Amino acid sequence: MKRVVIAVLTAVAVALLGLVPVLQAPAAPAAPAAPAAKKLVCEDGGTYSGTYKSVRFPAGFDCTLDGATVIGNVFAKKAPGSVQILSSEVGHNIMIDGATGLVFIGVEGCKIDPHAGNNIKVTNSTGDILICEETIDNNLMLRGNSGAISVFRNTVGVNIQIAHNEAYTGASTHPGETIRVRHNTVRNRIVVRANDGRPAICKNNTAKAEICPSAP
Fold first, then answer.
1. By Cβ atoms counted within 10 A, which residue in 77, 108, 122, 123 is the most buried?
2. In 3D, which of 208, 169, 164, 203 has the Cα closest to residue 187?
3. How far is CA 144 from the centre of its chain?
4. Rounded CA gap, 58 and 80, in Å?
5. Are the CB atoms for 108 and 127 separated by under 8 Å?
6. How far is Cα 202 from Cα 180, in angstroms, rounded to an integer?
7. CA-based nearest residue to 145, from 103, 106, 207
8. Which 8-state DSSP code applies to residue 73?
9. DSSP character for 146?
10. Residue 77 half-sphere exposure, CB side, CA atoms within 13 Å?
11. What residues contact residue 145 under an 8 Å CB cut-off, 6+ apart?
12. 12 vs 32: which has the higher pLDDT
């Protein structure tokens, strides 16, 4: 009986005072999880700008990363064609071996600052190599290459090593056989040596030590 009286009095009070019971809004549904980044195997002639777990360039393929984000590594280690990594962030290493076309790491015009979280290593490639305005946490290493080599305005956390490259096999006179290393900031050393007699121009670099043969 008491419960009935209390319920009636409550209803009367609500009616007299104009009280409106407060209802709790239902909880918003949880946002869907972002899809996990996938591994990318480039198609020949492809250009990619997404986010990837890792990227692989197959043998003989020309491929471009333009504005891409790679969480792990970029591997082009089985004689790819042209390898271009433009305005892209790479969380770990860029490893290139045996490229037959242009190797270009940076951006067209070299006006912004891409990033490589660990190392950049280019070996045994016959195409020209241009690396510019890149931030590299550890080392930049070029070895066994026979194309033109130009390294401009990079920031390198440990060393630049350009050593034991082959004689120039290209046809152009500029940049030609001369290895050009200019306007780089390096925490430790810049070493340019034992490049099959190729001359080098090393100018306006900042490093603890610089070993570089002069051009004739």
1. 122
2. 208
3. 22
4. 6
5. no
6. 6
7. 103
8. -
9. -
10. 9
11. 122, 123, 124, 125, 126, 129, 165, 166
12. 32
